[in-house]
């Protein structure tokens, strides 16, 4: 009897299921079946082995047993905690100290002593710091003298962009520097909006928007804005101001030229592009007379004149704004790219000097030191931080966009990283003469090109550092 009741129940369940199936067929044959509802938590974790790998614990960081990691700058880089960025930096330091069981200590090493201190301490088998911030002028000699640790093997898994990594080769095959990112545009042209407006001229930003910001349009504006306003027979307003050694570098780059070819190891300030720029510079001073003569201080005077509101255009670097322009210039002003030279297809910014972090030869656990350096960098926020800093010094959004290179029109021109190679010193010695009309650019360059090549050869041989 019990068996018959069980069979009856089973038959009843089968008939009921068949009825439901038939009902579904009658009411839904003309429509696309609904997509099944995914059950990721159950299906994926049980059928996909790759998901298991994602939940594996990360390999623990190396324990350096309380070791002090010394980081040298030519200033006190210890974050004081008086700004949001400093607070974030302090948090990263704390995280690194706990992660690797280390203590971060910042050293303040005098600028000109850094190279000698690094080389002498390496020779004594006691590197004075694990990480050293150093200008490229010292990197060349230290690199070729064998005082730095090659970093190629330690940068295979990094957050640093490949173009930044490649720039740390300094013309060679191996990587010797650590840099987290590059500011897109650190030098360009400041201009006085009031002066352009009063003269009824389009200013550099308007010309740039029209794709007509070039040497010719700059010269045309400079000539029209070099005037005697009070009628005493002397020019009291000039189109341009600058130091000859800054103008030469920026004009050569703006024409696509270089002072030095890092790949071939050749001095190139005698190239057609560079010579065209130097001849143009010569004409600005001697033929057109649109550059205000400095009063004895080439380093300070140009910015001073611009701050006084008597200069229409001033080529310079963003680092000058806070101490030289803000709170001094009362007029409206702006910031644009350097104008394009005749041979340039785009705007160029000279990468004349840089600085990088290096690891001295003989530093233990260099692979871990590189990871510590990376963990101290604010990769996620550097662009936002830069924009915030620019908002504090630049006058308008257009200028900020130019400094950020938001349109991507400025190209970094490598090959001008002449610091410490003796190239710029040789060129400057003759530009100083030809802007005064004492010699021509071609004569001056011919006098010093071989001297510049000899200076480079001496540095790249490592001879200077080995003598220390």
Structural class assignment: alpha/beta
If helices are DSSP runs of H or I spanning 4 or more residues, what is the number of helices? 20
Total strands: 12
Order of the strands making up the biggest sheet: 2-1-3-11
Low-confidence stretches: 1-53, 464-468
The main β sheet shows up as: 4 strands, mixed
**Mean pLDDT level:** 85
Radius of gyration: 32 Å
What fraction strand? 5-15%
Percent of residues in helices: 40-55%
- What gap, in angstroms, lies between the N and C termini? 109 Å
Rough outline? globular
Task: Describe the overall structure.
This protein has helices at 2-28, 40-47, 49-54, 84-100, 114-123, 136-144, 162-167, 193-199, 204-209, 215-224, 244-254, 272-286, 301-307, 321-325, 366-375, 382-391, 397-404, 423-434, 441-460, 463-466; strands spanning 67-73, 102-108, 131-135, 187-192, 238-240, 260-261, 266-267, 311-317, 333-336, 347-350, 355-358, 410-413. The chain is an alpha/beta fold and 468 residues long. The strands form 4 sheets. Strands 2-1-3-11 form a 4-stranded mixed β-sheet, sandwiched between helices. It has a 4-stranded mixed β-sheet with strand order 5-8-4-9. Helix 4 (84-100) links the parallel strand 1 and strand 2. The longest helix is centred in the N-terminal third of the chain and has 27 residues, at 2-28.
């Amino acid at each position: 009897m019990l068996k018959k009741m069980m069979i009856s129940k089973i038959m009843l369940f089968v008939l009921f299921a068949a009825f439901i199936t038939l009902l579904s067929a009658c009411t839904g044959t003309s429509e696309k079946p609904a997509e099944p509802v995914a059950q990721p938590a159950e299906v994926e974790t049980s059928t996909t082995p790759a998901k298991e790998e994602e939940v594996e614990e990360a390999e623990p960081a190396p324990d350096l047993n309380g070791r002090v990691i010394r980081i040298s700058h030519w200033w006190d880089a210890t974050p004081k905690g008086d700004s949001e960025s400093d607070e974030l930096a302090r948090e990263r330091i704390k995280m690194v100290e706990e992660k690797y069981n280390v203590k971060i200590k910042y050293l303040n090493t005098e600028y000109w002593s850094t190279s000698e201190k690094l080389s002498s301490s390496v020779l004594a088998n006691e590197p004075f710091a694990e990480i050293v911030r150093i200008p490229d002028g010292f990197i060349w000699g230290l690199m070729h003298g064998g005082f730095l640790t090659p970093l190629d093997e330690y940068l295979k898994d990094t957050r640093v962009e490949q173009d930044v990594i490649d720039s740390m080769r300094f013309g060679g095959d191996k990587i010797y520097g650590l840099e987290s990112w590059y500011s897109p545009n650190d030098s360009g042209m400041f201009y006085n909006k009031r002066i352009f407006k009063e003269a009824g001229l389009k200013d550099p930003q308007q010309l740039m928007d029209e794709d007509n910001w070039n040497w010719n349009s700059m010269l045309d504006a400079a000539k029209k804005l070099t005037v005697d306003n009070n009628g005493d027979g002397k020019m009291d307003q000039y189109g341009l101001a600058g130091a000859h050694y800054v103008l030469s570098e920026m004009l050569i780059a703006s024409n696509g030229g270089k002072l030095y070819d890092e790949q071939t190891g050749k001095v190139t300030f005698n190239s057609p592009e560079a010579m065209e720029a130097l001849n143009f510079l010569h004409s600005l001073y001697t033929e057109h007379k649109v550059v205000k003569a400095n009063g004895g201080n080439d380093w300070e005077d140009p910015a001073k004149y611009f701050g006084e509101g008597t200069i229409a255009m001033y080529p310079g670097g963003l680092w000058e704004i806070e101490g030289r322009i803000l709170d001094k210039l009362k007029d409206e002003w702006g910031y644009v790219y350097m104008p394009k030279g005749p041979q340039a297809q785009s705007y160029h910014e000279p990468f004349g000097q840089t600085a990088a972090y290096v690891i001295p030869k003989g530093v233990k656990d260099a692979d871990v030191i590189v990871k510590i350096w990376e963990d101290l960098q604010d990769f996620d926020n550097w662009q936002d931080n830069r924009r915030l800093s620019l908002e504090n010094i630049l006058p308008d959004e257009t200028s900020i966009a130019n400094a950020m290179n938001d349109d991507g029109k400025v190209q970094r021109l490598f090959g001008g990283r002449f610091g410490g190679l003796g190239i710029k010193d040789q060129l400057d010695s003759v530009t100083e003469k030809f802007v005064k009309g004492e010699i021509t650019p071609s004569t001056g360059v011919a006098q010093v090109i071989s001297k510049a090549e000899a200076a480079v050869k001496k540095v790249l041989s490592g001879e200077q550092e080995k003598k220390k």
